[in-house]
Amino acid sequence: MNTSDFTTTLLVDNTPLEVFNAINNVRGWWSEEIEGNTDKLNDEFIYHYKDIHYCKMKLIEVEPQKKVVWYVLDNYFNFTNDKSEWRDTKVCFEISEKESQTLLHFTHEGLVPEYECFNICNEAWSNYVHNSLRNLIETGNGLPNPKEGEGYNAELAKKWKLQ
Q1: pLDDT in tens, 48-83
Q2: What does the domain layout of the chain look like in residue ranges?
Q3: Distance CA 67, CA 1 (A)
Q4: How far is C-alpha 56 from the geometric centre of its chain's CA atoms?
């Protein structure tokens, strides 16, 4: 891990299993628009937010109650000049016990300050982890992006070369 990678931590009173299950309920905290499976090794899923952000993830590590790692297979932002940002990076969720609480250490390996999207992504990940994921863990109700309606858009995927 590079020390300039985006990282944040979350400490909750819930069990490691509850935190692990919440992380894998990606539709419950990131976006209801997720397409594909999100909880088993080698699962692949697609996230998109309007025509602004579109990415394809693969679960490359799943260790129950301890760790989940997504590999970014492909990505598109409509607001960056460098269209390779996020590609070949990893989104890591590491779970550990700290006294009577559970510590979630979130790192987006490869999301570095040199990226055009760093400030926006930093703010977005912070919001998703500290507000939406925390709410899902603690109350069972996250604050994901709502469904946009049509779901997977093959034409946009083709345009963004994500097929």
Answers
A1: 888 899 999 999 999 999 999 999 999 999 999 998
A2: 7-155
A3: 15
A4: 11
Considering the domain 7-155 in this protein, what is its CATH number?
3.30.530.20
Which stretches of 25-148 are DSSP H helices?
26-29, 118-127, 134-139
Nearest CA among 29, 38, 12 for reference residue 143: 29
Q: What Cα–Cα distance (Å) separates residue 18 from each residue in 45, 104, 122?
A: 22, 11, 25
Query: Identity (one letter) of the amino acid at 101?
Result: Q
Strand-pair partners of 28: none
- Count of other CB atoms within 10 angstroms of residue 62: 18
User: Degrees (nearest 5) of the Cα angle 21, 23, 28?
Assistant: 90
Residues 6+ apart with CB under 8 A from 17: 64, 65
Tell me the Ramachandran region of residue 5: left when phi exceeds 0, alpha when psi lies from -120 to 50, beta otherwise. beta
Contact 3, 22 (CB under 8 A): no
